Amino acid sequence: MKHQNIIYKINYMKNFLIMMTLSLMVVVTSCKKTDFADSYADPSKISVSNIEKQYAGFLKANSSYVLPDYWNYFVVLRTTTDRYTQATGYTNVDKMYVPGDAGIGGNWDTYYNLLAQYRELQKIYAASSATDQAAKKIFITSATIYLYDFTQKLVDLHGSIPFSAAGNLSTNGGDYLKSLPKYDDAAAVYTKMLDDLKSIADELSSTSLTAATQTAFTNQDFVNGGNISKWKIYCNSLRLRMLTRVSGASAFTARYTSETAAILSNPSAYPVVSSNTDNIEITVKSVSSNGLNSSGFQSGLEDWNHNIASKTMIDYMKTNTDPRLRILFEPGTAAAGAFTGLDQLAANSVQDALIAGGTISIYNRSTLSRNKFFPGVLINAAEVSFLKAESYLKAGNATAAKAAYEAGVRQSAEFYFNTRSISGDNTAGTPAALTTAEVNTYLAQPAISWDAASTTAAKWTLIAYQKWVHFNVVQSLENWAETRRLKLVSLSFKADPTAQSMPPARWFYPSGESVYNTANYGAVKATDNLTTKLFWDTK
Amino acid sequence: MRKLLRFLTVPLLLWGLLANAQTRKVTGKVSSSDNKAVVSATISVKNSKAKTVSNEAGQFTITVPTGAVTIEVSSIGYTSKQVTIGASQTSVDVVLTASQNELSDVVVTALGISKEKKALGYATTTIKSESLVQAASPNFATALYGKAPGVTIGATPGGATSAVNISIRGLSSITGKTQPLIIMNGVPIRDGEASNNNYWADQRIRGNGLLDINPEDIDNISILKGASAAALYGAEAVNGVVLITTKSGAKTGKKGLGVDFSTSASVDQVAYLPQYQNVRGAGAPLNVSNGGQDAAGFVYFTVGGQKMRALPQYSINYGAKFDGQPIMTWDGKVRPYSAQTNNYAGLFQDAHNNNTTIALSNGNENANFRFSLTHSENEGVSVGAKNKKNIANLNTSFKIGKHFSTDIMVNLINQQTHNRPYSVDRLLNNFTGMIGIFDNGQWYKDKVLTSLGYRYRNGSDQSLTPNENIIYSNFRGDIADYMYRVIANTSDENSNRLISSVTNNWQITNHLKFRSRISTDFTNQTTEDKNRSEVPLIFGNSGYFGMSSYQSTINYTDALLTYNNKVGKDLDYNVTGGYTASKETSSSLSRGSDGGLSTENLYDLAASVNTPWSGSNRFSLVKDAFIGTANANYKNYLFAEATVRRDRTSTMNPNNNTFIYPSVNTSFIFTEAMDNIPSWLSYGKLRASWGVVGNYPSPYMANVAYNQSTLGTIYGGQPVLYTQVPTGTFGNDGIRPEQKNEIELGLEARFLNNRFGLEFSYYNAQVKDQILPLTLPSASGAGSILTNIGTLRNQGLELALNGTIIQQNGFKWEATLNLAKNINKVEALAPGLTRLLHADYDGNAAQLVSEVGQPMGDILAHPVLTDANGNMKVGSDGLYLLDADKMVKYGNAMPKLTGGLINGFTYKNFTLDALIDFRYGGSVMPTGINWMTSRGLTKQSLNYMDEAHGGLTYTSGGVTYHDGMLLPGVKADGTKNDIVVSQAYYYWNVYNWGGPQYSSSRYSLYVQENTYIKMREIAIGYNFGTKIASKLGANKLRLSVFGRNLFYLYRTIKDIDSEQTTAGSRWYQNVSNVGTNPSSRTFGVMLRASF
């Protein structure tokens, strides 16, 4: 009996142990409530931000369209504005003047990403304490200046755009029906920006930051390094650019005259970029792949022969012994040092043969495409000088106009030689240094000289050509806007019988607008073609 | 008669009861024909209540009335047997034979529970091992074509490493996952999705997890289709469940050690290529395009003082007709000017595959095991693509004492993949990459590396071998780039995957048992990418080295407590309660060189010119559920089951992540329940079920949070840390799960002594609260937002017929026909939204949409503009004008009917198995193929090319042409069209890229119905007689030849394989893209032996 009892106990123990093992297996792997919460949110993301971090996120949102990068150069600009301005030469192909949806969409989506980050910045700012709002207003103010720069660019490409009601999905708590934005009239967007920038210009004159804000602002502002006076310069230079752009529209003519005069006559209150040291740009500090740099410039400009020089530009520079020729371009490998541009009127097979033959010049790889330190140009001295020249010329102040024009040419040359000097690349060989004498000689060339231009119209043309050379592929969107507005650079295009026969007057809206924002798009549908001119395009 | 019998038995019974005072004990043993103990066999005495079950050793003791009695012995998987016991007999041994339809009698159901098929109130389809391996399919999914009604397979072209899709009963999610849950021996395994439709994101063709499972190790696959069948898997089962049971040692049916051996070798060849024209080369008539060619269509080069003709640089091929006379080719060689019929195929290779498996198995009543080793090598048709696999599989179970048993499965998969197939996107979805007729892939193979091993150079590009630069016209940079990449760049993946599980069973009492299971599916993979230096260092830094690692783990557990008993003598029931939990984690890390390699072809991160880039990714997913089921069995002819699952998931907002999924089903065997069943009806069953299953968003999709990163120190003393609100897909913390409600009715019957069988199902499923990333205009603040906005319905019929059609004189013909019709309908989208856009193609040229009231996947395009009288309007160039404001439906992506016909013939030692699969209806839009027509590459583009082809004669610029076309319609002024266009101009423009804003392309012509009947598999085998086999020491020996993807009996699209557009796991990725890899056809030979 006892024996049996022991066996029973052993069996009991064994069963118990096995049961324990089995139960343990389940306990070990069963889930607790916190496990679910812990795995809900992506560990690489955060649920709260602050003004400073969101500000930098805003500035970062379109950096690949400020610093030269692959998509912007290869997809967007190569097939559109670089052709329309003949900043580059290109093989004539079917539908070459029709902007593609990939390019339009890339540029558009990037702008609205920037705007969405701006709205989020506004949202975070609005939710912060009154003390914080007072101390950190500079983040909103400077972000607004930066935003308007790109808002102008988008308006200049399309005309009316969704603006005042756009970018609000997060602010509206994900209510997507409420967030479908209406379009704002192009001229109204300009008016709003000019009004705001005017008051910002005054506001910045009286802005002083607390030490803590200044430290944070210096740290996060990778455009101007927290320098308020540079933001002031940026703001006023931008006003000058915007006013000039709309100067031909009758509703803005008076405003142009009075406000440019007010800006130019009071440089201490309204400073603008007056030398290359004032240039507003994103400076490259690191060329590592996660830093802000121009390492995407090479494939963006060199792939598919995007860097081919146009005959019009090479001829203009060569004829007038432009000192920038050797720094902006390099001769083809088979050209024995001769500069030649591609003729846009030649048959495409001839063009292909020429490009393959290596006699055509290309954009200087060491200055531009392989220069990973190439800055992200926002607005620089040469551009502002030409804006000034235009303003003085219009106001009848020929002397000041001449000074501004010549200063612009000097600043342009200086800018490109400076840029070459920071390049780590020497593919194109070391260029001879720029001398003041050769710039003087250049400015004395019959086709360049201010004084040699006998009529006001001829002087206008000089400014237009200098802008065109200065902007080239570096400020492609500005280049197209100014060539459209002034219509003074003489460009010959081969007609395309298959589609839009000549370069367009504007871009389409991206196809997504008609599909996903149908009701609002309906209001602008009638103007969504390649021939409707912008309201400022009055010549 | 029956009544009479009943009348007679009553007195006998009474007598028996009276005589009951006297009983005796009989002991015995139940074993199978292979001398194994049959456990849990039921032993009942006829005309008596006495009943018992056999124990672990197959032994039983039963009390029976005195005198001779008849006992009935039955067990699942065996044919029941009646044995008469003599009046003085006290022991009896019963040998049961395995029932012929063993698998159709016992089915593996949810959570790995085996059930009698007749008890199931829902449809399942079971596919046995033999039909999975007969054509040596490299994975189990592509062995399923046509074999189960309602199950459709879509394989991405490229070979054994390309992803395969399975869909069950149509698609249950408009934009979400539609792949079924895959369960192996009761535990979930990693499958994952693949998207191979975005060349720019990933150039190599990826696979999914199901490819790793070795078909040779699979005993059977059971497919749970409806919501009720899968309800125990709750929110993971909206797309159905595939249950894989691997082979075990228990079923070998042999004494002692069993050895099975199989080996096969096969070759895949590129197949179903577009029908190229073989008439003319690159160029265009001068009146269509002047690219500098002369009237004959040539351009000229002077080489060594001699003028040589060459083709002009055109991507269109309406040029000079082939004349066989000498011409300069782009590679500088002079060749006869004639069609290169091997032009495109010349870019690929024949893929050689082999697979060898050895399996050992053994077992006795206390333990059994099966251990197998497999080695397989599969190449792809993409040059250099190769995959090697070593798989070890162990399945064992053993008893610990009387009441415990343990099953252990270990599956180890070691894989090396060298150069996954490289996407041919740039050769098919891109004009400049389409190979001309006077061009050849082989020429590119020869030229893409310079003699020094660098990348080819064009024109006057810097080179150490400038005279090798490619300078002549009609060179295709995109093809050369493709060829260069497949030859010069390598990508090596090394992966180890371990799938293992331990299951413990404890029979606590006769009525109560407990089962617990724990499993893991662990994968570790490393990848090294090496791109050769493209140029010498003096010209710059090039080349690339990257390395990455990936880990994935799924840990799973479940525990089930089951109680069974009976109420009265006719009602058996069992109740189960349980818990299951799983945690899935995955992480990946990658680094790569930046700015090229500092030393040519030095493959290490140390050679990176700039700081190497790095990336990482990880996720974790936690799920658990409480489950309960109740089953009842009334007299073995009426069955009912109810289940409920309460589950939680971490992908949903933690405040609202618990959901309940119920189901009920019933089965009624009317042939056993009713009298007067005609004798030709051997078996009949009616079934009905209802269930709810769900679907959750993918991990982290719902949560709204900021992305954060750093830019490093710039102006200040601290790094620039920044955040951005998501502007790609915006989350939604209030998202609800998708919910599928399904009812199903079915009939199963067998006739003429089980010679013919029929299974029929009707189902009706509504899927509510579809989780969709609703596309928004980016100006709203994001590209899309996660929403619950749709309701979808799938209704359908499934029919399976099988039978032995002829069986006489050693000849046997068995056939199975599977048919499935699914009607998909979008019932609702968001309020005010009647159309959901999945894709807008090529600048509004066509759209893929789902419209309320229609099946999802309507393909829309712009119609031709018509006037008030319906006349088609012709533009000034003689082509039709498109109506840019209107889009019309030209097709729908959902097939109307799918199925398969399986025929098996046996004559003496010969067997022939032939599998046909088919699809009726459903459209695709293979844009790349239509663009080939635009480029003048397809046969279609020859129409009207001259008078013989129906061309009109007309004069242009003083030259007479014979390639005219006149489109019926009216001109802008309303008069009849009289503008004759060149057919070259017509095809070039009408099949071109882009919407009406860009071109005259009529995408309505691109949409084609994809109906086909394909000879999917043929296997011809010879079973050697035992005499020959035994000489080799084997008891079975079989040699077979097989082919897969063989030919079409009928098809509506002639220029591509019917599956060519398969490019991802989501259905909308499979409508228009033909640019993954070419399809292939396979031939092979196989030897199988058992020892």
Q: Major beta sheet of chain B, specifics?
A: 22 strands, antiparallel, barrel
How large a portion of the residues of chain A is in β-strands, by DSSP E? under 5%
Low-confidence stretches of chain A: none
| Total beta strand runs of chain A | 7
Secondary-structure element sequence of chain A? HHEHHHHHHEEHHHHEHHHEHEEHHHHHHH
Output the structural class of chain A: mainly alpha
Distance between the termini of chain A: 118 Å
Query: What is the number of E strands of chain B?
Result: 54
The largest contact between protein chains, plus residue counts on each side, is: A-B, 108 and 102 residues
SS-based class of chain B = mainly beta
- Helix content percent band of chain B: under 10%
Main sheet specs of chain A: 2 strands, antiparallel
First-residue to last-residue Cα separation of chain B:
52 Å
Strand order of the largest sheet of chain A: 2-3
Mean pLDDT of chain A: 92
Regions with little confidence, pLDDT below 50 for 5+ residues of chain B: 1-21, 100-104
Number of helical runs of chain B?
Answer: 11
Summary tags:
heterodimer, A: 539 residues, mainly alpha, two-stranded antiparallel ribbon, 7 strands, B: 1091 residues, mainly beta, 47% strand, elongated, disordered N terminus
What does this structure look like?
The complex is a heterodimer of chains A (539) and B (1091). Chain A is mainly alpha-helical. Chain A has 23 helices and 7 strands. Chain A has helices at 2-29, 33-38, 51-60, 70-77, 81-84, 101-127, 130-135, 137-158, 186-205, 211-220, 228-245, 250-265, 297-302, 311-319, 325-328, 348-357, 381-395, 398-421, 436-443, 456-471, 476-486, 511-516, 518-522, and strands at 45-46, 161-162, 183-184, 280-282, 329-330, 362-363, 376-379. In chain A, the strands form 3 sheets. Chain A has a two-stranded antiparallel sheet. Chain A has a two-stranded antiparallel sheet with strand order 4-7. A two-stranded antiparallel ribbon of chain A has the order 5-6. The model of chain A has no long low-confidence stretch (mean pLDDT 92). Chain B has 11 helices and 54 strands. In chain B, helix 6 crosses helix 7. The longest helix of chain B has 17 residues, at 2-18. Chain B is elongated, with a radius of gyration of 34 Å. The chains are: A mainly alpha (539), B mainly beta (1091). Chains A and B meet through helix 1, helix 2, strand 1, helix 3 and helix 6 of A and strand 27, strand 28, strand 29, strand 30 and strand 34 of B.
